[in-house]
Amino acid sequence: MFEDKERKKILQVHHVKKYFPMDRGKQLKAVDDVTFHVYKGETFGLVGESGCGKSTIGRTIMGLYNKTAGEVIFKGRDVHALTEREKHAFYREMQMIFQDPYASLNPRLTVREIISEPMEVHRLFPNKRKQNARVDELLEEVGLNRDHANRYPHEFSGGQRQRIGIARALALDPEFIIADEPISALDVSVQAQVVNLLKTLQTEKGLTFLFIAHDLSMVKHISDRIGVMYLGHLVELTESDTLYDDPLHPYTKALLSAIPIPDPDIEEKRERIILKGELPSPIDPPSGCVFRTRCPVAMDICARKTPTWQEAKPDHFVACHLYNENGPKVNIQGHNKVEV
Amino acid sequence: MNKDEPILKVNNLHVTFSTYGGTVQAVRGVDFHLNKGETLAIVGESGCGKSVTSNAIMRLIPDPPGKITAGNIYFKGVDLTKLSEKKMRAIRGVDISMIFQDPMTALNPTLTIGTQLTEGLRQHQKVSKEKAIEKAIDIMEVVGIPNPKERLKQYPHQFSGGMRQRIVIAMALICEPELLIADEPTTALDVTIQAQILELFETIQKATGVSIILITHDLGVVAKIADRIAVMYAGKIIETGNNRDIFYQPQHPYTKGLLNSVPRLDLAGEKLEPIEGTPPDLFSPPKGCPFAARCPYVMEVCNKVFPVQTEYTDSHHVNCWLQDERAKSLLATIANE
Ligand SMILES: Nc1ncnc2c1ncn2[C@@H]1O[C@H](COP(=O)(O)OP(=O)(O)OP(=O)(O)O)[C@@H](O)[C@H]1O
Ligand SMILES: Nc1ncnc2c1ncn2[C@@H]1O[C@H](COP(=O)(O)OP(=O)(O)OP(=O)(O)O)[C@@H](O)[C@H]1O
Ligand code: SF4
Ligand SMILES: [Mg+2]
Ligand SMILES: [Mg+2]
């Protein structure tokens, strides 16, 4: 889809860090030096296991969290240096959809009030009639109908509630949407409804998505490019098919091999990389490469030096000593085997 | 008991809950069996009755508001629905064990892991303290917890989520049960930890021959470890078969829909076909097929009568009117036109 090398970068995340202060002067390094960009019109997927910092990155990009270091540039402007007035305009362009369709909608408001709220804040329409007409239109866009407008969130199923959340996010006609686990709380058969809706909206409106989830199968399905996070770090980033066909980072390989595929014949033949041990704490992360305590091919240097973020192949970024220019020439093939 | 008899046989199980809003018909006539040493997966949408079914086997339905209103649950030939609570207590955790989704709720935060692990052994099997601790150390090793001796003295909060789930599994296994019921045992865990736990299940089953009922909504997990599968929808089992029957020859429109709505990591660009709509309300479940309102093939009869069970093959049973000879000839005529 994006053959053009001159693709426009709509969002740039430069060496962003987000540390949370903890007891006794300790710090929790939720996001630690993350760099990537998102092209206009694409879906960029961010995956990783619980607590690796996906939501924190999303919230820092939105400016909901102050950054500890680095820069977030949206359409050429530093998100964390906006004046109040500029912020107001910024929130018209960037919106967020949240994980929990049950908690993120105010139960005391009708669907119409929920969807109208951002329009009112931004005084989008001169009168109620025009605003109501837009609400009806939005409801139809997300596969609900205008009769739903006067009902309350609890009268809807999870999938329908997530549609209401999406309608609300679309109310200001944003260019960029951060979807933080928008389908995790939904049943399998309903997840596909919401994902298909997001895809349709993207084609119709030319939206750009940052899609955050821990379910790599779904992320791969919806994303053009994918970034893989581990313990606050981005460890690999490339196009989604390449990530599956030619993963470079040992963690990506293990992650891919751990995901069961709903096909018994394939499952029977698959070899798995079973990672030893548990996820370390972001308060006291391992020295050097944060993955080294579980990495099946860790070397001496991995404990001493943090691997640099580099383009190992065209459009394929990785942070791992195996791929350093003067790193050891080892051969790791396929994601079903790790050989040294 | 005959050696080839199933270890568990559930017949016509009905469970209801009375609530302010009315009576929830959570399980509405469920039949299935489990053979010795096999793993049966129960899959289905949230709220379809998977947990209620497994809690009923353990006789853990809170009464009130819940009640087993009909049916039998034969475990090694004994009908569990007829047993006193006292007799049931001697079976729970000893002959039949259960693992719950959330490891934290299964562990007591104020007792050491060692105390919790040995409790069952000492109470039910009258094992001495030393013997019980020895056994606890062994089982901690089996489930992959390093330094078990020291770890026994620690409390649940000192373990990570994955380790807690291993401890819960160790607790379920320490009395060497013949039947293990695992209700979403890996749903709260990350996939790399899930892979460790699933491997553990397979190893343990090989070593002990324990029969397993696995409840999950993850079809990948099912493909990996189930021998047989029961698909539930709105309080009923609508299709059962061997693992490959269900994945390669699904017959029920709901089962087909479920398989088409999950993306596959190993396939590129396939289109997801969601099942439109939502499951019915269990306060007043439909008379006919519960899937009728969402089914692309719905016929008049579907709304009126619950479909009879047909044997697609010996191992593969379906409740869908499309399997009826009359529907087949009807569909054939439509296709020919
Ligand atoms: N407001 C906060 N204060 C302190 N720590 C926080 C805060 N928000 C997040 N964290 C910590 O930062 C780390 C990253 O959390 P984050 O919510 O970004 O993870 P995530 O990748 O979104 O995980 P999940 O998949 O579980 O949603 C975690 O260790 C979390 O406990
Ligand atoms: N204690 C209770 N009181 C009232 N209703 C209940 C109770 N327990 C379960 N139910 C109802 O019984 C039905 C079946 O619930 P069950 O917990 O078995 O679903 P499940 O298939 O396990 O779903 P999930 O995948 O979400 O765990 C649901 O409609 C539920 O609301
Ligand atoms: S019985 Fe009817 S409604 Fe139910 S699944 Fe079969 S065809 Fe569809
Ligand atoms: Mg999150
Ligand atoms: Mg349940």
List its salient traits.
heterodimer; A: 340 residues; alpha/beta; Rossmann fold; eight-stranded mixed sheet; four-stranded antiparallel sheet; 11 helices; 12 strands; 31% helix; globular; B: 337 residues; 13 helices; 35% helix; 22% strand; binds adenosine-5'-triphosphate; binds iron/sulfur cluster; binds magnesium ion
Summarize the amount of helix of chain B as a percent range.
Answer: 25-40%
What percentage of the residues of chain A does DSSP assign to strands (E)?
15-25%
Mean pLDDT of chain A: 90
| Tally of DSSP helical segments of chain B | 13
CATH class of chain A: Alpha Beta
**What profile does the largest beta sheet of chain B have?**
8 strands, mixed
Task: Provide the structure class of chain B.
Answer: alpha/beta
Q: What is the residue-mean pLDDT of chain B, rounded to a whole number?
A: 91
Based on CA inertia axes, which overall geometry of chain A fits? Answer: globular
Low-confidence stretches of chain A: 331-340
Q: Identify the bound ligands.
A: adenosine-5'-triphosphate, iron/sulfur cluster, magnesium ion
Summarize the main sheet of chain A: 8 strands, mixed
Task: Give me the oligomer status.
Answer: heterodimer
How are the strands ordered across the major sheet of chain A?
A: 6-7-8-3-9-10-12-11
In helices, the fraction of residues of chain A equals: 25-40%
Q: Report the span from N to C terminus of chain A.
A: 36 Å
What separation lies between the terminal Cα atoms of chain B? Answer: 55 Å
CATH topological fold name of the domain at 8-95 and 177-243 in chain B? Rossmann fold
Q: Give a count of the beta strands of chain A, DSSP E runs of length 2 or more.
A: 12
N-to-C SSE series of chain A? EEEHEEHEHHHEHEHEEHHHHEE
User: What radius of gyration of chain B results from the CA coordinates?
Assistant: 21 Å
